[in-house]
Amino acid sequence: MSSTPVTTWSLEQTSPADLLPAAAPDGDVRIVRAEVPSPEFSRFLYASVGGDIRWTDRLGWTYARWQEFLERPGVETWVAYDHGTPAGYVELEPQDEGAVEIVYFGLIPAFRGRRIGGHLLAYGTARAWDLAERWPGRTPTKRVWLHTCSKDGEFAMDNYQRRGFKLFDTKVELEPDVAAPGPWPGAYPA
């Protein structure tokens, strides 16, 4: 199997004041927290958003593994809807010492390029900053961080920087080449 060098960039905000807003998209776009842990829905979002950009690390997760992750206190999934249809999501995971990671963020391909991504990222980042307000006993957020890589969409890095994220680490690793799985086999060309 062949390999490809993949660059991973880690970015962070260290104050809520770092967050730069995005213009709201036109139309009926709403962002709602998925409050009931649902492995089916979370797997749908993961596969639909990441299928064309080779998100594969969670495809082998069992139902129980999804449930276990989603039920962890403080894990939140915020979903953007365009006229009632899921368009994308942001997944937050609190960590030690007041850090919150934006573990996954993105849009389903049909919704990209419609100004939803910047709005969703800004909204999701704001929810990372106020996460402790919804989870009594959690340490207030002191840092919001994420990583993106050269496999992600061509505008990903620019979107993160436009929202006020600053680069703090870069790594290059060889990864095996895999076909884009799509949300179901054959949904996207390899």
Automatic annotation (TrEMBL):
E.C. designation(s): 2.3.-.-
Keyword Protein transport: no
Superkingdom of origin organism: Bacteria
Organism field: Streptomyces olivaceoviridis
Domain (N-acetyltransferase) ranges: 29-190
The keyword Cell membrane is annotated on this UniProt entry: no
Coiled coil location: none
Keywords recorded for this protein, A-Z: Acyltransferase, Transferase
CDD domains for this protein: NAT_SF (cd04301)
Name this protein carries in UniProt: GNAT family N-acetyltransferase
GO molecular-function term, one example from the UniProt record: acyltransferase activity
